[in-house]
Amino acid sequence: MFPDTAGRITDDDTPDVMLGKLRAKLDGREAKTKEWNSLYDGDRPLKYASPEFTDQSGGLFEGFSDNWCKTVPDTVRERLAIVAFHGEDGTPDKEAMRAWRRNHADVEVGLAILDALVVARSHALVWNPSGDASDITFIPSGQAIVDYVPGSRNARRAGLRVWSDGSHEFATLFTRAFNGRPAMAYRRQRTMGGGSWTPRTIGIPTSEKTDLVNPIGEVPLIEIANRARLHGAPQSEIASVAPLQDAVNTLWAHLFTAADFAALPQRVVMGMDKPVKDLIDSATGDIIGEEDVPLGQYSKDRLLWLSRQGASIGQFTAADLTAYLKVIDVAVRHIAAQTRTPPQYLLGEMANIAADALEAAESGLVAKAMDKQLHFGSDVREIMRLEALASGQQKRAASLAMGKVLWRDAQYRSEAQYADALTKYKAIGVPDEALWRMIPGIEPEQVDEWVRLRDAQAAAAASAAATAFAGFGPKDQGDDEEAEPDEEAAA
């Protein structure tokens, strides 16, 4: 075995040592996770503003954000909807879909994928606490971590899930079967704020063991990763948006400030002293000094009295704010280009766009969504394989491992476009069931119902036809034999 490096777990580590290393690695991700979450929520201070501007504006723009870091991942996630699971033979796995819905995964998987797009990863845990129906739980990035076998991106060596109740922190460490040791689940707890991990006693029966043999036989924690390259960690979808987002926010702040001070023509009084008023002693009535008259009062009253001969009024023209808008427009177009987000999603430019032009504008987003379907589909397929193992169905698990996840079409089309395409597929001999599955939003159960109704309709039509033409067939042979004696008697 290669020598271990600092912080990296090995199969020879004790459970508590392994837990500590994984917890430290999870803590190392916390700062970046918080940053991406803050960007998505629009909580981002001005980054490119000078100290002088910041001092002048104070906290005026503290809560403002023209938030494209939310639009970009939301636009992709809207194109990622799971429709069905197919086994190795290409037929729908109805049991997998029932388990999927039973665990509300059809809803929560969208949240997990969104988390993966925003903070680079989320997680799913497959467990079977009752020995009957398995549970699928989706977990945010800050509460789970998966460690892989060195040299592999898929073979899970260990996994850690952590959570708290406000006073205690809980952890479950999952390890793989190795060197004669079975796959295990170690449950631990400690007080909030640190301390050593101890066997868990809170929330479980006293008669129940703390360390459990994992009946699935594998690490049941799956990382749902937003993958980008072969090497390196998963990446946030808004990593490239953040710098441009900061620039846009700063430009808007400067624009608003310019609009407040220079958007209107500014007037200046020339050849006249600054206006003052006398300070009078209330007791003696004597003038004891003078004080400045606030210039804002003249602007408020829209009145200025020029008392000195030769005084005049000059005017500065209003500032042109379109320069700011042009730069902001370019920055947003850069966001659209780098993230393959259609410009109409960011700029609202969608008036009188032909269908072909709209399809071309969305081609980059569609290709990006299909790529995400491929990578996220691999993780979801692994989740359902573990669900089948947890349910004790090894054969179905093997079929799902070689099967595929069916997603809703990433390309938005009108009903007329779908009808035209399906009609053309029908003309070249594609079966009805295959055509029905291509319709967006149609689930396997509905296709099965259509097949049943079609077969019932065909059977009813065949029965009606048989009844209608029953009198036109050949006569019964028995009737002819009975008629022969009568004919002889008549002769």
Overview of the molecule:
Residues 470-491 are annotated as: Disordered. The chain is an alpha+beta fold and 491 residues long. It folds into 3 domains: 1-50 and 73-237 and 355-412, no CATH class; 265-317, no CATH class; 424-469. It is built from 17 helices and 15 strands. Strands 4, 5, 6, 7, 8 and 9 form a 6-stranded antiparallel β-sheet that branches. Strands 3-2-10 form a 3-stranded antiparallel β-sheet. Strand 12 (276-280) and strand 13 form a beta hairpin.
What is the strand and helix layout of this fold?
Elements lengths: L14 H14 L1 H12 L9 H7 L10 H10 L4 E5 L7 H9 L2 H15 L1 E7 L7 E5 L4 E5 L7 E9 L3 E8 L8 E8 L6 E2 L11 E3 L7 E5 L16 H21 L3 E5 L5 E5 L6 E6 L2 H7 L10 E5 L5 H18 L3 H5 L7 H7 L1 H28 L3 H8 L2 E4 L7 H13 L4 H6 L6 H25 L8 H14 L1
Antiparallel strand pairs: 1-15, 2-3, 2-10, 4-5, 5-6, 6-7, 7-8, 7-9, 11-14, 12-13
Helix pairs in contact: 7-9, 12-13
Shape: flat
Helix share, percent: 40-55%
Provide the residue-averaged pLDDT: 83
Number of domain modules: 3
Number of helices, counting only DSSP H or I runs of 4 residues or more: 17
